[in-house]
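Lab manual, section 2.4: Encoding a predicted structure.

Procedure: take the sequence of the chain (158 residues), apply the prediction step described in section 2.3, and record the output as structure tokens. A sample record is shown.
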Amino acid sequence: MIKFIMKSLCLHDVHSLLQGKILLSQINCAEYLLPHVVLQAALDLHTRGTDWFWCSPRLFIDDITGQTLGTASFLPTNDSSVHEIGYGTATEFQGMGIASRGLALMLAGAQAHDSAMRYMAKTAINNLASQRVLEKNGFTPCGKTIDAEDGALVLWSR
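Recorded output:
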């Protein structure tokens, strides 16, 4: 089992990544795990007054090599008492429990930050691995929807 830590990017790091002062390769992170749009969304949310805790992208970093194994973020919803979660694992580390354990770390920190907060997520109907990650972290399916970009999705809540 790969041991890893969760690191929340600080506001300065996000600014530096967006401005090109730091490259994702310098933090051992593949671009598809932390795209520019995620960094910009985090900054935009914070600029609109959201606590940085909820904006900060999280990196799951191999304790020995320093490689980013996966990432996760909280996303705002129309309900201020609910945050959506998004996560991903580097292709070569999928199926090793990185997302399940990383999400557990992220949710434990969130629970300590605000015990009243609730969470939701969306998965593709055929993405059984991602659905299992959510089940392992106490989420239950609560509906289905169709997204213009992502197609048929299962809605999850916790």
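Check your result against the sample. Strands lie at 4-8, 58-62, 68-76, 82-89, 118-124, 140-147, 151-157.
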